[in-house]
Amino acid sequence: GAVVSQHPSRVICKSGTSVKIECRSLDFQATTMFWYRQFPKQSLMLMATSNEGSKATYEQGVEKDKFLINHASLTLSTLTVTSAHPEDSSFYICSANPSGGTDTQYFGPGTRLTVL
Amino acid sequence: DAKTTQPPSMDCAEGRAANLPCNHSTISGNEYVYWYRQIHSQGPQYIIHGLKNNETNEMASLIITEDRKSSTLILPHATLRDTAVYYCIVRSGIQGAQKLVFGQGTRLTINP
Asked: How high is the pLDDT of residue A52?
């Protein structure tokens, strides 16, 4: 149980385009999901907290207009990187916390974004 | 949330027990100790967590000192697939305070 999926697993796009990444909880409902970013040889950095039915909460320094988060259902959150640039190339990872359960977070497999 | 300190890297022989230490001297009474690991190019995997009692599951054991200022994750019979970065994270148990703050972790290498 407690499986989180992400789609796509890998994406390459041209500079200036937008990319959408999906995060799904497959066997549980998640009121809250989280989005992290990880650059090579670095640790995970929390970008934002995604709350079902309400606006996401962004960490300091993360542009909310560039990284659009939508959490329209209890099993799906999406992260859209708008007008992507090469510096946005990174490993994007989501996690989800089962509603009503323990506070353990379960992570997706990650999405490797490369912006040319 | 309290900060944690871990050694940057460790080596262990295959088949031996891997003992990964973590210091969290500023931990407060309602904070849990969580352990995750990240195998290269994958999302972090939950291992185990505890508050003050020692915990064991199918993956590992977690030993927390009586004063709760440090803990040790034990992989009883390490295999090559246990090579990963291991993160020790302290987080409040208060409902809603759910952020995980990742440090640099310990890069564990299991050698044949």
From this structure: 85
